[in-house]
């Protein structure tokens, strides 16, 4: 599988993502500049990644400006052809702004930036410990959207405690239904607030992020 990592003005996790994919997971990685449109050479078996950071400084609304970049027009077309897309943190926000994923990411409860390790539970019940680092990571959607997400198993990760329990103390930003990540109905576009790329290196003492990439993308 080949990965393309999009770099926006203000991206600060693009190198982390590249290193995790290339050095820790042994994948081929190509960096994609936001002003370009070229994703020739990528097939629907490959994956385009929107990394974390503060695209365009979050000056209007997280992801709202990046959504209109030339590269995002190619990414949207790629997703509609069935290509795989992964958005992490700010990348998740961009996917929601672009309409590739439903819902919105709001300011954290308490209006504070949070940076720490959390536990998340996958659809298969597997638990991972991965870092979060965001100020606007509280997922929200209306009742009908949430019903559709639940009914079609589109919630891919939920915040939980170290035993998989869902309690108020294990939901760092008060995200609706403990949602930490979702996918589209077709199952080819994934968005999550936690950073799996920051939990892939043995040097850091945590490789749980590798399990996230394996679950979502089979790498």
Summary keywords:
about 220 residues; alpha/beta; Rossmann fold; 9-stranded mixed sheet; two-stranded antiparallel ribbon; 5 helices; 11 strands; globular
Please give a structural write-up:
- Helices cover 22% and strands 27% of the residues.
- The protein is α/β, with parallel strands linked by helices and 219 residues long.
- It has one domain (2-217): Class I glutamine amidotransferase (GATase) domain (Rossmann fold, 3-Layer(aba) Sandwich).
- The protein has a nine-stranded mixed beta sheet with strand order 2-1-3-4-11-10-9-6-7, sandwiched between helices. Strands 5-8 form a two-stranded antiparallel ribbon.
- The longest helix has 11 residues, at 14-24.
- The radius of gyration is 16 Å and the shape is globular.
- 47% of the residues are buried.
